[in-house]
Amino acid sequence: MKIGIDARMYGPTHSGIGRYVQELITHLGMINTEHEFVVFLKKEAYDTFVLPNKTWKKVLADIHWYGGEEQVRLSRIINREHVDLMHFPHWNVPLLYRGPFVVTIHDLIMFHYARRDASTHGALVYKIKDTLHRFIVKHAVTRATHIFATSQFTKDDIVNTLHVPEKKISVTYQAPFEHAKNGAEDAGAVLEIWHIQKPYVLYVGNAYPHKNLEKLVDAWRVFFQRNPEYQLVFAGKDSPWYESLKAHARGVGSIIFTGFVDDAQLSALYENAHLYVFPSLYEGFGLPPLEAMTYGVPVISSSASCLPEVLGDGAMYFDSTHVDDIVHALEQGTGNEELRYDLRKNEKDEVKRYSWKRLATETYDTYVAVA
C-alpha cells in the first residue's frame, strides 16, 4: 500500500498543525513496515527533509494553503503518485481530489467563533472566504473514509455540528513536543533579550480573538495593582492581533511581548516561569498548557471546551468570561503554595497520558484498516 501525507505545513513555523505533521511523520518513520509513504512538501521543507528510510519518498508540492492553486494543482500532483490512501492533516482537502483519504480535524473554531475581527480581510472578502472554508470542511468530513479528532470534545463537536456518524471518527491525542527541552539556551541570556525578570506569568501562542487575551490583560490590570513584583509575558509570533493586544495593554504594568521565539528560547521561558495561564474560550486540544506541565510549571486554565479533558487534575480552572475569576486564579496560582504543590504533583500523572508514538501507531493502524 502507498500512503500519501500532505506535509505542506511541516515544521514549527506553521504553529500547532506544523508541529503535529512533523511529529506524526517522525514517529510513523519509526514503525517497521513494508508500506510506502509519499510526503508532499513545500519548497522550504523539501530541501532539508530527511527521508526516514527507503520506503519513503518526498515530492515537491510548493503550493500555499487555502488558495485556488491548492484546489486545482495539488490534486494533480497527488494523482501522479498513485497513492492508495491520502492523509490530509487539516481540513483544507482539495474539492477536486477524488481518491480515498483520511483527514485530521483539529477544531471547528470557524463554526463557533466566526468573527470578522479574526481576519485581516475586508468584510466582503472575509464573508466569501468564510463561506467557502465552511463548505470545504463539510465536504472533507463527508467524503473522508475516516476522521481523526484531536480530543473527545472535538469528536463530539464534529458529530453535533456537522452531523457526521460517530463510528467514522476516532480520537488521537497529541502530546507535548519531545524535543522542546533539548538545547535550551542559558536562561539568563534568554530572559535578558526581553528584559524579563522573575517571577513572571507566561502565555504561549497566537492572539486570535478566541484566545481571550484582552480579558487576561483586563485581569492583569487588577492583579498587578496588588502584586507589582510580577511580569506577564506573551510569547507568540507578531501579528495584527498581537498589535491590537499591545494597544489594549498600553499603560498596564509589566507586560512583555516577545514575538516569535525559537525552541531553545521557548524552553528557557517555560523552565523559568512561575505560572502558566491559558484563558482561551475554545480549543480543539490545547498543547501549550500541556507543554508547560512537562516543565513542572503550575497551570491555571479556562474551563472552556476540551481543556478539562486534556489537562485533567493538572490545572486550576477559571471562568474565562469573568475578569474577577481570572484575577482570583492568578492570585491563587502565584501565591497559594499548597495549590502550586498539588498542581505540580498532578501534572506528572497527566502528561503520562500522551505520547506521539501512540498517536502514530493508532494513525498507522487506521491507515491499514480503512485502505
UniProtKB/TrEMBL annotation:
Gene Ontology molecular function terms on file: glycosyltransferase activity
InterPro entries, alphabetized: Glyco_trans_1, Glyco_trans_4-like_N
The Glycosyltransferase subfamily 4-like N-terminal domain, residue ranges: 15-173
Start and end residues of each Glycosyl transferase family domain: 197-348
Record carries keyword Transcription regulation: no
Pfam families: Glyco_transf_4, Glycos_transf_1
Name the record gives this protein: Glycosyltransferase family 1 protein
